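TICKET: design request
STATUS: open
ATTACHED STRUCTURE:
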């Protein structure tokens, strides 16, 4: 899965109108909609705040008052053409007094998103299952050795009453084999599945 590493912003001037495109990484539709609402509220003085998003659980677009199909849909098409997921694009337009016509709007909104993508860093994301391992301090060395030999990624280490490691395995890797190796030494709990920047 391809997405962007952080937020980006570009500004284009087309026939005296300002088109400000902001693109954001977002993990799901809830986060995507929160970003859109936040930007729309922040720049409510703009003529339009048009948006498009693609996330793992949904996709959508909004023309925000522009003629139907001239803003949000072309923006979404650019995201799809670049094979991006977990991304939100918002184009804030300040009208400059010259009407662009339907074709001109489609080109302007599409170009705004394309230029923002060109300025961004694309990263590969993969789906991982996240687990926690709880164990006694006396087992740190042997568990770390098993993790290393099993080529498992450690995301986080916590040292409290017991040791707690958060680990990530690709979804098609077999946790049972690893569980078998450490069953006398620690307890493994499944936490969630999520997309992470490609590990290893």
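STATUS: resolved
RESOLUTION: sequence designed for all positions
ATTACHED SEQUENCE:
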């Amino acid at each position: 899965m391809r997405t962007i590493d952080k937020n980006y912003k570009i500004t284009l001037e087309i026939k005296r109108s300002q088109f400000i495109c902001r693109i954001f990484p977002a993990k799901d539709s809830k986060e995507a909609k929160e970003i859109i609402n936040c930007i729309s509220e922040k720049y409510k003085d703009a003529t339009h705040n048009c948006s498009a998003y693609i996330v793992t659980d949904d996709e959508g677009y909004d023309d925000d008052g522009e003629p139907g199909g001239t803003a949000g849909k072309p923006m979404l098409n650019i995201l799809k053409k670049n094979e991006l997921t977990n991304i939100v694009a918002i184009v804030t337009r300040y009208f400059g007094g010259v009407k662009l016509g339907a074709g001109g709007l489609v080109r302007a909104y599409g170009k705004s998103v394309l230029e923002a993508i060109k300025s961004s860093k694309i990263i590969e994301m993969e789906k991982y299952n996240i687990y926690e391992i709880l164990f006694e301090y006396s087992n740190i060395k042997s568990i770390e050795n098993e993790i290393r030999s099993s080529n498992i990624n450690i995301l986080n280490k916590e040292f409290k009453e017991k040791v707690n490691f958060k680990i990530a395995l690709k979804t098609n890797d077999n946790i049972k084999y690893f569980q078998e190796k450490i069953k006398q030494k620690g307890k493994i709990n499944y936490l969630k599945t999520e997309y992470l920047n490609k590990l290893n």
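CLOSING REMARK: The mean pLDDT is 94. Residues 55 and 86 are 4 Å apart (CA to CA).
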